[in-house]
Design brief:
Layout: H1 3-14, E1 21-25, E2 30-33, E3 35-39, E4 42-47, E5 50-55, E6 59-64, H2 80-95, H3 99-110, H4 130-135, H5 144-161, H6 166-175, H7 177-183, H8 190-209
Antiparallel strand pairs: 1-2, 1-6, 3-4, 4-5
Helix pairs in contact: 2-5, 3-8, 5-6, 6-7, 6-8
């Protein structure tokens, strides 16, 4: 890695970190990224300070954020949650899903960044894969209103499918319903286990700090198996 690239990395590290994984380089540096994608022999990283490409050979490990001390609440942009709260509340009412659960999914999936793109090309606030978005009738995957509406509808279907078992619904949102069916529980994937833990922790914290809002859906289990989204294995 050249000196210019190393200086750029150090500059990005100095910027406030928000969420996602850590890219650990063989030099010992840790990059806190909001998304990454393997393109050929390079990793294309998205982070708070911009974008960066590093050689795949220079990457020693990819670690979930949950391994490290959680960032203080002040690290989240102050305007982020109010900015999308109306859209969340509308989707919560439309699909009978708890608004705080939707917000917690958005926080972990994208940290309220409507332009977030994952290493698997999941996009937007609720990190929908393009093919999933198409199945859900989304015309503009980067539009916050469409993304939240479709992501909430998918989450509603999963909650119905798993009889309102939040852990299983979140696991299916992350790894896919077929993986939950295969194992009959939260799949034993480090990424999925960490994802479920982080969303539930944020959700439980929000419920302890505010009165109950829209309840989770009730009724029969959804007959159809919802499409994959987000971090499907």
């Amino acid at each position: 890695m050249g000196r210019a690239t190393l200086l750029l990395i150090l500059g990005v590290l100095a910027a406030p970190s928000l969420r996602a994984e850590y890219i650990v380089l063989r030099t010992g540096l840790r990059l806190h990224v909001t998304g990454y994608q393997l393109v050929g022999d390079k990793y294309r990283l998205q982070m708070t300070g911009g974008k960066l490409e590093v050689a795949a050979a220079d990457v020693a490990a990819i670690e979930p954020e949950d391994v490290f001390t959680p960032l203080p609440a002040a690290a989240t942009p102050a305007a982020a949650q109010p900015l999308y709260r109306d859209l969340v509340e509308a989707a919560a009412k439309r699909y009978n899903v708890d608004a705080d659960l939707i917000t917690s999914v958005i926080a972990v999936e994208s940290n309220f960044d409507p332009k977030a793109v994952s290493r698997k090309n999941a996009r937007g606030l609720m990190q929908l894969l393009p093919e999933t978005a198409a199945q859900l009738g989304v015309k503009n995957i980067d539009d916050p209103a469409e993304n939240i509406d479709a992501g909430t509808r998918y989450l509603r279907d999963l909650l119905q499918k798993y009889n309102n078992d939040v852990a299983l619904a979140l696991a299916a949102y992350n790894a896919g319903p077929e993986k939950v069916q295969l194992y009959g529980r939260v799949p034993p994937f480090a990424e999925t286990i960490s994802y479920v833990k982080r969303v539930k922790r944020d959700y439980e914290k929000s419920k302890s700090q505010s009165p109950a809002k829209t309840p989770a859906p009730t009724g029969p289990v959804a007959a159809a198996t919802p499409p994959r989204t987000s971090q499907s294995q």
